[in-house]
């Protein structure tokens, strides 16, 4: 089973790129972030014609997450991260696909830091960590994937010295990610490529993609019950170079069937 995550940076504006990549890569499950579309504007029909069913949680102009499947039924579990009934951001959706719990997340950016947006990022991270612990305690095969807006270590960022005050790289953010992973999750990319330079995001400015001045902020965390099924993982880096592409590239893993 091939599972991918892709921050599309506007699902309707980037729809030709998304459909082109789906036809090329043919993932079985796709987690999308940053739809930037209200619920009724999600391009369900175009995706159905491409062979994908979908569940989604939209939001006008901002955020938004979705899970697509090519061959499997999607059984939705939740579309809100527990812990804050007043949080209206569309940043989390969770479903069972092929007997695997898939959590699709778009963690807050948090800039400028320090400040209210950074406080919200850390509070959201804490809620997510508590929910991840509950999933871990159930002993199920779980994949938590999406745009975490975190560079966990210095090898995950081009010129880390330039990012020390950024919300994606501040010590508090990296510590929160470590606390999450230390519950027993496996960072799929780093399991297979422990020391390689791998990026998933390149800014639109200063020819960042051409210079490979990137960040690794899109991650797959696997529970112990599924970590042993990991066969391959990678980044479809070339997609970032397509015309009118997102500033993220799709990231994927391949799991052996149970």
UniProtKB/TrEMBL annotation:
SUPFAM superfamilies: DNase I-like. Its cofactor is Mn(2+); Mg(2+). The keyword Metal-binding applies. GO terms for molecular function: double-stranded DNA 3'-5' DNA exonuclease activity. CDD domains: ExoIII-like_AP-endo. It is an enzyme of class 3 (hydrolase). InterPro entries: AP_endonuc_1, AP_endonuclease_F1_BS, AP_endonuclease_F1_CS, Endo/exonu/phosph_ase_sf, Endo/exonuclease/phosphatase, ExoIII-like. Keywords: Hydrolase, Magnesium, Metal-binding. Residues 4-248 form the Endonuclease/exonuclease/phosphatase domain. It comes from the Bacteria. Its EC number is 3.1.11.2. Belongs to the DNA repair enzymes AP/ExoA family. This is Exodeoxyribonuclease III. The lineage of its organism: Bacteria, Pseudomonadati, Bacteroidota, Sphingobacteriia, Sphingobacteriales. The gene is xth.
């Amino acid at each position: 089973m091939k599972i991918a995550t892709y921050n599309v940076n506007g699902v309707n504006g980037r729809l030709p790129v998304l459909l082109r990549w789906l036809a090329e890569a043919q993932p079985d499950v796709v987690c999308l972030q940053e739809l930037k579309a209200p619920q009724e504007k999600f391009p369900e029909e175009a995706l159905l014609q491409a062979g994908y069913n979908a569940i989604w949680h939209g939001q006008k102009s901002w955020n938004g997450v979705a899970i697509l499947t090519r061959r499997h039924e999607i059984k939705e579990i939740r579309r809100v991260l527990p812990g804050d009934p007043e949080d209206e951001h569309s940043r989390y959706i969770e479903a069972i696909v092929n007997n695997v719990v898939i959590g699709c997340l778009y963690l807050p950016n948090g800039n400028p830091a320090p400040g209210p947006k950074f406080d919200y990022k850390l509070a959201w991270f804490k809620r997510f960590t508590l929910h991840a612990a509950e999933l871990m305690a159930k002993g199920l095969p779980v994949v938590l994937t999406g745009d975490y807006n975190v560079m966990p270590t210095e090898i995950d960022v081009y010129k880390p010295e330039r990012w020390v005050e950024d919300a994606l790289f501040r010590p508090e953010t990296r510590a929160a990610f470590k606390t999450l992973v230390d519950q027993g999750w496996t960072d799929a990319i780093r399991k297979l490529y422990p020391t390689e330079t791998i990026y998933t995001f390149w800014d639109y400015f200063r020819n960042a993609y051409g210079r490979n001045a990137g960040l690794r902020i899109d991650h797959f965390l696997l529970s112990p019950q599924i970590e042993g099924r990991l066969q391959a993982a990678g980044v479809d880096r070339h997609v970032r170079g397509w015309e009118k592409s997102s500033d993220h590239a799709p990231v994927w893993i391949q799991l052996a069937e149970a």
